[in-house]
Amino acid sequence: MFEKILIANRGEIAARVIRTCKRLNIKTVAVYSEADQEAPYVEMADESYLIGKPRVNESYLNIEKILKVAKESKAEAIHPGYGLLSENPEFAKRAKEEGLVFIGPDADVIAKMGDKIAARNEMKAAGVPIIPGTETAVESAEDAKQIAESFGYPVMLKAAAGGGGIGMQAVHNDAELEKAFEGNSKRAKAFFGNGSMFIEKCILHPRHIEIQVLADNHGSAVYLFERECSIQRRHQKVVEEAPSPVLSEETRKQMGESALKAVEALGYSNAGTIEFLVDDEENYYFLEMNTRLQVEHPVTEEITGVDLVEQQLLVASGEKLSLKQEDLFIQGHAIEVRIYAEDPNTFYPSPGKLTKLELPEGEGIRHEVAVRSDSNVTPFYDPMIAKLIAYGETREEAIDKLTKAIHHYEIEGIKSNLTMLKRIVTHEQFKQGNTKTSFIEKYYLPTVTNH
Amino acid sequence: MNEVKASMAGSVWKIVVAEGNEVNEGEDVAILESMKMEIPIPAETTGTVKEWKVSEGDFVNEGDVIAIIE
Fold it and tell me: How many domains does chain A have?
């Protein structure tokens, strides 16, 4: 095992990684920008180094500077956290070149999964279900109709050269398709100089369900079941839970096995997450793979009893996975809510100075926090300032604990999404498990007046 | 006269319309940036940008007047 690692991240995730390192007697090196001098994680680490100005490209994205600190402080490995440099293949490659262990998969695997088309092709080859779509441009409306029939309506028409939603349209039957095909093709030709059209199956009101995997450098891998993260705003997750409130045991197993196929085909190592869209019939389709620890990893830890950061460190140091699939099982239910410094109606960021922060305590309540009660929340980084996780024997119990905790959670000085979270977790549809990706739009936004 | 106000706290990322230039209602006059989010600020009226109260890179609070349109 390592004796000292550097954490190339900030906020709650840096604090989270340091916590496990302390338990394992691993020394930690933190890096911070001028804006984060007072951040709790800077004080928690054994050593901390200022690496630059507040803006991320002058600090947390400065690969050479971070590598220099790692070498000078004699760290053996780098934990990249999530976001920032965590999925940057150049960073993983440069770390290795400098003789440092990157706590994550190989640079070429990160690069492959970062390229949407390459990732889709890899998954298809590995036998993982992908959203059905045409591989080449569709010649005519007639051909389009045949393809649509084979996928089943509705389908999405997409301009090959399109962007920003231009030339993209969902169609529900032959007549609509015929009309849209010509129109969109013409528009795409006018806008992008290329009228080629592709067709993809539309997944209606999907759920977002992801599978956590862990793999070592010796060919062993396990899956740690699913997290459902359907409740999102601005395409970012707000509420995450494990297990999914609806997934059948059979689909869970199939998805887990699909994820392991992907791991094997990629030669993946360390922790990773495969995201899927899941429809009402529990058909699931590959969306993307995140080659790092996820923000929402705590819910998996709560229901499996596995410390994912510890496993990452073990695997990266070259040890074999001691976890076996047959020893893993789901116990209880965990739900996480992300606390954002933002206006709960418009979702606009709300930086500023905190004047109060009171965290509710209680059995089954876990906190991951990036701030103190007098911290300055700066405009330079992601608005997430904390995560609240509730664990119960059943989903009902977890919701009950979470509801109580959110109502006792106090943030003053800046705006936060606490009122939004209260409305979500007490909503009848949430309690019933109707957690689709359309949840916010359907059940939350109608309750606010000035969105 | 119409005041253009910041709809969130953040820094002025881009000023799109220079002083003395005309702008139509609904057109963006500036783009604010905060916490990895860019928010365009549209003019609420058609007119001429009389004065910019901020420069690119400045920090503004929600509700601050950033420009005057006449």
Answer: 3
The ipTM is: 0.76
| A166 and A51 in a common domain | no
**A386 Cα to chain B: minimum distance (Å):** 15
Q: Are strands A27-33 and A4-7 parallel, antiparallel or unpaired?
A: parallel
Q: What is the distance in angstroms between the Cα of A60 and the nearest Cα belonging to chain B?
A: 14
Asked if the structure places residue A124 within a domain, the reply is no
Q: Tell me whether residue A22 is exposed, middle or buried, using C-beta atoms within 10 angstroms of its C-beta: 0 to 12, 13 to 18, 19 or more.
A: middle
A294 plus A163 within the same structural domain: no
Instruction: Identify the active-site residue in A10, A292, A338, A395.
Output: A292
pLDDT in tens, A313-359: 999 999 999 999 999 999 999 999 999 999 999 999 999 999 999 99
State the CATH number of the domain containing residue A338: 3.30.470.20
Q: Which of B32, B36, B58 is the mutation pick for testing A, counting most A CBs within 10 A?
A: B36
Per the domain annotation, does A132 fall within a domain? no
Tell me the nearest-neighbour CA distance from B10 into chain A, angstroms.
Answer: 6
Q: Cβ–Cβ of B62/A351 closer than 8 Å?
A: no
Among A55, A346, A348, A382, which would you mutate to test the B interface (most chain B Cβ atoms within 10 Å of its Cβ)? A348
Q: Residues A189-197: what's their mean pLDDT?
A: 82
Domains identified in chain B, total number:
1
Mean pLDDT computed over A303-315: 98
Pair (A171, A81) in one structural domain? no
Contact A343 B8 (CB under 8 A): yes
Confidence tier at A307 by pLDDT (50, 70, 90): very high
For residue A341, list chain B residues with Cβ-Cβ distance below 8 A: 35
pLDDT score recorded for residue B23: 94
pTM to 2 decimals? 0.90
The bridge status of strand A77-79 relative to strand A101-102 is: parallel
Where on the phi/psi map is residue B47: left (φ > 0), alpha (ψ -120 to 50), or beta?
left
Supply the range of the domain harboring residue A78: 4-103
Tell me which chain B residues have a C-beta less than 8 angstroms from the C-beta of A380. Answer: 35
The structure tokens 């390459």 sit at: A118
A363: left (phi over 0), alpha (psi -120 to 50) or beta: beta
Is A94 one of the catalytic residues?
no
User: For A130-134, A239-243, A291-295, which range has the lowest pLDDT when averaged over its residues?
Assistant: A130-134
CB A72 within 8 Å of CB A55: no
Evaluate whether residue A82 is within a structural domain. yes
CATH of the domain at A16: 3.40.50.20
Same domain? A38 vs A155:
no
Would you call B8 and A341 a contact, using CB atoms and an 8 Å cutoff? no
Domain encompassing residue B30? 2-69
Question: Which chain B residues are Cβ-neighbours of A343 within 8 angstroms?
Answer: 8
Rounded CA-CA distance A27/A274 in Å is 31
The CATH number of the domain holding residue B63 is 2.40.50.100
